[in-house]
Amino acid sequence: MIRVLLADDQSLVRAGFRALLDAQPDIEVAAEAADGEEAVRRIRELRPDVVLMDIRMPGLDGLAATRRVTGDPALRDVKVVMLTTFELDEYVFEAIRSGASGFLVKDTEPDELLRAVRAVVAGDALLSPGVTRRLIAEFAARSKEPAAADALGRLTEREREVMALVGIGLSNEEIARRLVVSPLTAKTHVSRTMVKLGARDRAQLVVLAYESGLVRPGWLG
């Protein structure tokens, strides 16, 4: 059973998400929170698998709350998915840098919401690859000059190649087709790369791909 915590200051939004999630046989809403402080407190208490976290909330906002969660080693297994009103919200890239596993627009289709919750728990994809590409295209161009790529020295040539493909928003299936390997092999390479770099999840791997200079803005095609 996937346990979800809903953090949003709008009770109607929480009610809608709860109705959808609780109707699934493999998902349950463990708790709700109306602001960031309450969200962090309930997360530490309940250790949910996934948190759907609104970016804009009174008091402690979603970004600050996410940094507290992802910065706590005891909560390493908790995946945070940010909720935003606009697909290319100016805070979304910062949310990913803060440790969020991805983001969703609030008016997303129900099937996409369910797929996203299951995907982040499985560690299999950074939500919608298409949305990921648009996110990267929008914000990578604003990123700072790449830092030194010392950490990449731990990777094999194939792992670097896989990391670059993750960085441009490809799913495991797309990586498998590009490299002519099985999806399981692609997933294994992604997992090993995350372990070697200490990446919390696939979203952080995307950020590291840009920060290390392995992927540069404009490579999306």
From TrEMBL:
PROSITE patterns: HTH_LUXR_2, RESPONSE_REGULATORY. InterPro entries: CheY-like_superfamily (IPR011006), NreC/VraR/RcsB-like_REC (IPR058245), Sig_transdc_resp-reg_C-effctor (IPR016032), Sig_transdc_resp-reg_receiver (IPR001789), Tscrpt_reg_LuxR_C (IPR000792), WalR-like (IPR039420). Residues 3-121 form the Response regulatory domain. The modification 4-aspartylphosphate is found at residue 54. It comes from the Bacteria. Pfam families: GerE, Response_reg. Residues 148-213 form the HTH luxR-type domain. This is Response regulator transcription factor. It comes from Streptomyces dubilierae.
